[in-house]
Design brief:
heterodimer; A: 175 residues; Pyruvate-ferredoxin Oxidoreductase, domain 3; 31% helix; B: 371 residues; alpha/beta; Rossmann fold; 7-stranded mixed sheet; 15 strands
């Protein structure tokens, strides 16, 4: 089982990113679940969502304690949350950032999802859309296939720019 | 088509297949998405139901009762305090023998104000005459809701059915969902005692001391008869749609020396604990109770050590499942109270309950020593 924890702030699309990723994994022929953790948080507060991907049905409902991968949609949550908590040794970290940040013992990647969304003017209620470009970045990292990522995005969003930003993130992502 | 859906959306999709003539409901966290989605189906013309937005849950159930007594199919959904607010009317629905189907998203009861999973809400409805089923996956929420209509409306039952799913853990998780076209799986609603303006009859009038107990016995008679109706319905569902259910879901029970009993998502997560324990050489199994009313025959537990995980409590007595199981098996269990108000319980915790079991005692996870 491959377990991913997504860190974001309420309203940034972390929950939708988890749903898109699970849907893409299902299109890849896998089993997947996307579970937002609903606390008492509101818009702007740090939140987490969980995605599990496996070759067999998933029977676990509890929170992910030892993720294989951590995705940070808003780098500012790292000031208040230990995003690396429980991350398996050699695990991957993807941060929405222009600069690459090194995390000792982990494989770090970065991509400027915010910049990509702004370039396409993909902004809702003043917030750049991060949940669709991040799926492109995750496809680059091999979590889901590119075709399934696009298919999932098109199923959930009618605006084709969501596919454009995913493609852009795929291309721009640091290896 | 490969779909992904939340538990709430799955329930709404099932309701779309069953096409109740009337849906009367009031939103409450974490159930809101069910009635929101049904309202969308109705307003978009995808579901030909009359949707009655009411001002409270008491009124939601009252509206369902008023509609159902005319012989039509009805549905509502609620959670926690909403269910408790309905309590007078849930008793009425069962007593009036109305096959209303309701989804209840299990949530704790305040105060303190808490919106997370717990089973004490629906278990407080245990003695009302409603059939109760507890589900553990998005697919099962969908399948059980479809079957609930057929079971409730069967002339040997004519009792309301409550489909219970864990708040957030299941109501808000996204899992694969295979939807079906139900065809004639649910026969047209036929209520033998529906009100008829051409043949006026009184309902709910004063019932004398020599009549009332007979009506109460009749509820119990139908509850007992519902066992075979549930079996038949689940068998036909498996034949048509390929997914088989039962009163319980048993995992690795046959050669087990110790069996974990739980309901809802925890009952499913317990299976992962069993895999862990089996690797350690502990002969463990799990039994997930699906139907709480009518209560299943648990003869499979005979002679085994039993660990019951209750996500509920009856103050001054004990875990409700543990109490019910001990009453049937006449044997002591290890009773663990865990998951109250959404308390995090993992498969590793469940494995630990089994390793440290002390039959004949009760512990509260996170409170008592040693677990």
């Amino acid at each position: 089982m491959f377990e991913i924890r997504i860190h974001s702030r309420g309203g940034q699309g972390g929950v939708t990113a988890a749903r898109l990723l699970a849907l893409a994994a299902i299109h890849d022929g896998k089993y997947a679940t996307a579970a937002p953790f609903y606390g008492a948080e509101r818009r702007g507060a740090p939140i987490v969502s969980f995605v599990r991907i496996d070759d067999k049905p998933i029977r676990v409902y509890s929170q992910i304690k030892k993720p294989d991968m951590v995705v940070v949609l808003d780098a500012s949550v790292m000031d208040v949350v230990d995003v690396l908590q429980g991350l398996k040794s050699g695990g991957k970290v993807l941060v929405n950032s222009q600069q690459k940040k090194e995390f000792g013992g982990y494989l770090s990647s970065n991509v400027d999802l915010t910049g990509i969304a702004l370039k396409e003017k993909l902004v809702v209620s003043g917030n750049p859309i991060l949940n669709t470009p991040v799926i492109g970045a995750l496809a680059k990292m091999g979590v889901v296939s590119v075709d399934s990522a696009k298919k999932a995005i098109r199923e959930m969003f009618s605006d084709e720019r969501n596919v454009t930003v995913a493609e852009a993130a795929y291309k721009e992502m640091s290896a | 088509m490969k779909k992904i859906a939340t538990g709430n959306k799955a329930v709404a999709e099932a309701v779309k297949q069953a096409v109740p003539t009337v849906v009367a409901a009031y939103p409450i966290t974490p159930q809101t998405e069910i009635v929101e989605q049904i309202a969308e189906f109705v307003s978009g013309g995808e579901l030909k139901s009359r949707y009655i937005p009411v001002e409270s849950e008491h009124s939601a159930m009252a509206a369902c009762i008023g509609a159902s007594i005319t012989g039509i199919r009805t549905f509502t959904a609620t959670s926690s305090h909403g269910l408790l607010y309905m309590h007078e009317m849930t008793n009425w629905a069962a007593g009036a023998r109305l096959p209303i189907v309701m989804a209840n998203v299990n949530r704790s009861i305040g105060p303190g104000w808490n919106i997370w999973a717990e089973h004490t809400d629906s278990l407080q409805e245990r003695d009302t005459g409603w059939l109760q089923v507890y589900v553990s996956t998005v697919q099962e929420a969908y399948d059980a809701t479809i079957m609930a209509f057929r079971i409730a409306e069967h002339n040997d039952v004519l009792l309301p059915v409550m489909v219970n799913l864990d708040g957030f853990l299941l109501s808000h998780i996204m899992q694969p969902l295979d939807t079906v076209e139900i065809g004639d799986f649910i026969p047209p609603t036929h209520l033998p005692y529906a009100i008829d303006v051409k043949n006026p009859t009184g309902y709910g009038g004063l019932t004398g001391t020599e009549e009332h107990y007979k009506m109460r016995w009749d509820i119990e008679r139908s509850m007992r008869d519902s066992v075979k109706v549930i079996e038949e319905t689940e068998k036909d569902f498996a034949k048509r749609f390929g997914r088989r259910y039962g009163f319980t879901e048993n995992y690795q029970c046959d050669d087990a020396e110790v069996i974990v009993v739980a309901m809802g998502t925890l009952g499913k997560e317990a299976e992962v604990a069993i895999d862990l324990l089996r690797k350690e050489g502990i002969k463990a199994g799990s039994l997930r109770i699906r139907w709480l009313r009518p209560f299943p025959n648990l003869k499979i537990l005979k002679g085994k050590q039993v660990v019951v995980v209750d996500r509920d409590y009856s103050f001054g007595r004990g875990g409700i499942l543990a109490t019910e199981i001990m009453a049937q098996t006449k044997e002591e269990v290890f009773s663990v109270i865990a998951g109250i108000g959404g308390q995090e319980v993992t498969f590793e915790d469940v494995a630990e309950f089994v390793r440290k079991r002390r039959i004949g005692t009760e512990v509260w996870f996170g409170v008592s020593n040693n677990v």
